[in-house]
Specification:
By secondary structure, the chain is α+β, with helices and mostly antiparallel strands. It contains twelve helices and 22 strands. Strand 6 (99-107) and strand 7 (112-120) form a beta hairpin.
Length: 549
């Protein structure tokens, strides 16, 4: 998949032309690492998919109707807070990196600022980060200050680009010329390993398109030419790759976004098809394994009854010869009139039983084995029929070549109770208790009700929001939503009195309350709920709020 800097260059130009001047109307997060953004361009509303999944990373327009979670994830809520109704000023590639930068003008009733949404399309390192003035406000994938990482990605940290690879920048023609002075045995691989921003398939396209002359100039011109021919290659109806330049036998598309949307849609469909096939196959195989185990148990019990007729004969022979036998004998050898050859049969006896009791013992064993075989016969017939049915299901699953085939088989397995019926999604297992909420002069103020809420309140706050906590007492965490505004002293004093009210010192006259920006509040690794450390704080003395909420 050529999600390299070469392809992203075309992607950025295409997105910029389509989205410049558009306004964000809705942000959803249907998957853990995927955003769906509705944008009104002035003529129509388009849906932009921004995916940071390791195997599906990309940015493209789509019309897929994905189901969204009932409760939006924190990052989605952060973006809604900061980017609702934001105007897209530009979409650009960052230098020659696999990074797209969406520059946005964000306007509220009280402020206006520019923010940048960085989309890093970098395979397993893909990420989405929102920044303001170069400072990270939040990210889809973040790192902690406790982690030993080269690149800190957490709210409050400065956004820095990933460390550059030790490769030649293709924008520098002289450097390219110096690199490509001598021919190489495997030129595509050489380009991939030594020239920045190229995927292996792009390097192959460059080499295949060379018709002689200055190779370094050809590489430079190929990468930075504006010629674009979006297409998708397929094999047996399954997409193999998409390209910004024409490939032989590929399916052409009008735009690179359409090619990506087609590629990922069919790729996901194929993945879902394979996953459903495995699910059904595993369900049937699990059932078949149980059936085979049950059949094995039946066959073992039937094998234990193989001497049933012998036990009947032994009982009859002992009965016919009671006059010749006596108690205390360990065995006897009697004429077997069932044997056509006229031979004898040696029979073991229980010396503690009389001859008649020994005969009854063999009769009882015979009767028990007979009842066992009579009970096992229908069970064996039934289990063999079930095994045959399982084999037919496996054959049907194996031969299914469409999603409709598998869905019909799934219905069959559900009806046969070989699959558990999916439970209806609960709207909410338990109503989530909201924060304590206050308002003062247009500022929203929130206070946690317990330690878990305190942690959640800090996590859900913006870096420039104000956080408050009593200095020498246990208290609720209190946050003032600043939305980029300066907090007046009256609002700060009110929030501090709320903090003092919900503290151990609420009966005192003057309570010291510390406050700082949320960016300076950190939770140590493995710390208990509600425990944080903070720096860069100031202190105010306030009287606790008098009458509760």
């Amino acid at each position: 998949m050529p999600q390299d800097a070469f392809t992203l260059r075309f992607n950025a130009k295409e997105l910029d032309a389509a989205l410049r001047g558009g306004k964000i109307s809705r942000i959803n997060q249907p998957e853990k690492d995927e955003l769906s953004i509705l944008i009104y361009t002035g003529k129509r509303t388009v849906k932009l998919t921004v995916n940071a999944n390791a195997s599906d990373c990309g940015v493209y327009f789509t019309e897929d109707d994905r189901e969204n979670p009932l409760v939006a994830p924190n990052f989605c809520m952060l973006l809604r807070k900061h980017l609702q109704n934001a105007e897209i000023l530009s979409v650009a590639q960052v230098e020659f990196e696999r990074i797209l930068a969406f520059t946005l003008r964000c306007t509220s009733d009280f402020s206006s600022c520019e923010r940048v949404l960085y989309v890093e399309v970098m395979g397993k390192y893909s990420n989405i980060l929102l920044t303001e003035n170069g400072i990270i406000l939040g990210g889809m994938k973040t790192t902690s200050i406790d982690e030993h990482v080269k690149r800190l990605l957490c709210p409050g940290a400065k956004y820095v680009l990933p460390e550059p690879q030790d490769k030649t920048d293709p924008r520098d023609l002289s450097a390219l010329s110096a690199l490509l002075t001598a021919p190489q045995d495997d030129m595509p691989r050489f380009l991939f390993t030594h020239v920045a921003g190229l995927a292996p398939c792009t390097a192959e396209q460059i080499v295949k398109s060379f018709r002689g002359g200055n190779f370094a100039k050809h590489v430079h011109d190929f990468i930075f030419s504006d010629d674009v021919f979006p297409c998708v290659t397929e094999k047996n109806g399954i997409p193999v790759d998409f390209f910004a330049r024409a490939e032989e036998g590929a399916v052409p598309f009008a735009t690179l976004s359409e090619a990506q949307a087609y590629y990922y849609r069919k790729k996901r469909a194929a993945k879902r098809f394979d996953a459903l096939r495995r699910k059904l196959e595993n369900a049937v195989k699990t059932t078949k394994k149980k059936q085979e185990k049950r059949l094995s148990q039946i066959l073992d019990r039937r094998k234990d009854c193989e001497d049933m007729e012998l036990n009947r004969i032994r009982g009859e022979l002992i009965t016919a010869n009671l006059y010749a036998l006596s108690k205390g004998m360990r065995s006897c050898e009697l004429y077997n009139y069932y044997d056509e050859a006229g031979g004898t049969m040696k029979i073991a006896l229980d010396l503690s039983l009389t001859p008649s009791q020994n005969a009854q013992k063999y009769y009882k064993k015979y009767q028990k084995q007979k009842r066992t075989l009579e009970a096992l016969a229908p069970q064996e017939k039934e289990i063999r029929a079930e095994l045959d049915y399982s084999d037919s299901l496996l054959a049907a699953v194996s031969s299914a070549d469409s999603a409709e085939d598998l869905r019909s088989l799934e219905e069959e397995l559900l009806a046969a109770e070989l699959l558990k019926a999916p439970q209806e999604k609960a709207r909410k297992k338990k109503e989530e208790i909201p924060f304590r909420t206050f308002e003062k002069d247009g500022f929203r103020i929130y206070a946690g009700r317990n330690n878990l809420q305190n942690d959640r309140l800090v996590r859900s706050s913006a870096p420039d929001d104000l956080w408050l906590h009593t200095q020498k007492y246990h208290s609720s965490h209190v946050v003032i939503r600043t939305e980029g505004r300066k907090v007046p002293d009256e609002v700060l004093g009110f929030a501090a009195s709320v903090c003092a009210r919900y503290s151990d010192g609420r009966s005192g006259d003057k309570i010291p309350v510390d406050y700082c920006e949320v960016r300076f509040v950190k939770k140590p690794s493995r710390a208990k709920a509600g425990f944080v450390v903070y720096t860069d704080y100031k202190t105010v003395l306030v009287t606790p709020l008098g009458n509760g909420e």
